[in-house]
Design a protein that fits this description.
By secondary structure, the protein is of the alpha+beta class. Helices cover about 50% and strands about 15% of the residues. It is globular.
Length: about 220
């Protein structure tokens, strides 16, 4: 029993690998990774399920992967099960529904099959009227110097209702956060400021293409 790997440790490693766009094709082509992620969707630990969903969401960002994901045995059924289960946390339901919709929308160019439309309506029911679409916010985080600080940042972001997923770019001191459309970016910066050792600015693109940083909240 002691020789068995911890599922959370394994799925978190896969999630971190999938967060790097350069790894996504290799993960999909591996014989064991995708079936393993699908099995993790049925795990009793909600953290394992959420990390598996994040990994699959990252893999789906590569268009070339979507057909294989859509055809993977048990994946769509597992996504529906997670999204519709009454005990699933709200943000996990949202992420499962988002991945399901993404894979269904990429199947066949024209009209959606009736069951895809039906599941889309169900997904909208579970997400609620305010959760129309996700948006992406890029944060530059002052003080994101090591993995201890990264863990603090993760804990702070996970407390914010409406955060769907996030990816760290440690070398740039940045975090790319996917949030509900009705959540303001300032809420993320306030959460990071609550650590009292980090401060965040939103990174935007100006008309000329140069980067612009907006607000900053510090914990001082």
């Amino acid at each position: 029993m002691s020789g068995e790997p911890d599922p959370l440790l394994v799925v978190n490693q896969l999630r971190d690998l999938a967060a790097d766009p350069l790894n996504r094709r290799a993960i999909i082509q591996d014989q064991g990774c995708l079936p393993g992620l699908i099995l993790f969707l049925g795990n009793a630990n909600p953290q394992v399920v959420y990390s598996a969903l994040l990994a699959i969401r990252y893999l789906a960002e590569c268009r070339a992967n979507r057909e294989k994901l859509r055809g993977a045995l048990g994946l769509l059924r597992s996504l529906q099960s997670v999204a519709h289960k009454s005990t699933t946390p709200g943000e996990t339901k949202l992420l499962a529904s988002e991945v399901y919709e993404l894979l269904q929308a990429s199947g066949g160019g024209g009209s959606e099959p009736a069951d895809a439309v039906s599941s889309r309506r169900k997904a909208q029911f579970f997400m609620g009227a305010s959760n129309k679409r996700a948006k992406t916010v890029v944060l530059h985080i002052h003080g994101l110097d090591d993995y201890g600080r990264r863990s603090q940042c993760e804990e702070a972001l996970l407390k914010v209702r409406g955060v769907i997923s996030f990816t760290f770019q440690m070398s740039l001191k940045r975090c790319v956060v996917r949030i509900r459309s009705d959540l303001k970016a300032e809420a993320l910066a306030s959460a990071i400021a609550s650590t009292q050792v980090m401060a965040a600015q939103q990174v935007l693109r100006a008309e000329g293409g140069e980067e612009v940083r907006t607000f900053e909240f510090s914990g001082g």
